[in-house]
Amino acid sequence: xxxxxxxxxxxxxxxxxxxxxxxxxxxxxxxxxxxxxxxxxxxxxxxxxxxxxxxxxxxxxxxxxxxxxxxxxxxxxxxxxxxxxxxxxxxxxxxxxxxxxxxxxxxxxxxxxxxxxxxxxxxxxxxxxxxxx
Length: 133
Known about the structure:
The chain has helices spanning 16-25, 36-41, 51-66, and strands spanning 6-13, 71-79, 88-98, 102-111, 114-124. The two termini are 27 Å apart. It has a five-stranded antiparallel β-sheet, with helices on one face. By secondary structure, it is α+β, with helices and mostly antiparallel strands. It contains three helices and five strands. The radius of gyration is 17 Å and the shape is elongated. The longest helix is centred in the middle third of the chain and has 16 residues, at 51-66.
């Protein structure tokens, strides 16, 4: 991996279950993440994914691409448009820098409305595979 390299995309269908489960798992009980009627009363067309679920998906994107030994050191994201049930989130990334200890990756996630998330992730470099024997 060298600076400028693009990482393969990850496509994530945004289901009602994902939105609600992500909110519950992150203990975010705001009604806009699980109650469609309450979300509509607050001006949203439906429930929408919370930032902690988005953060987890960004982390998954990076660790899936770097391998099981990758360790996230820093995840910094900014939300844009919401992600609603029925949307498809497409995460893409580009290597920004590589040194002996870390890899920095720029990540962008888009859906039908535009950019849902932009950010940077710093991960510890996985150790090179060792040949046993």
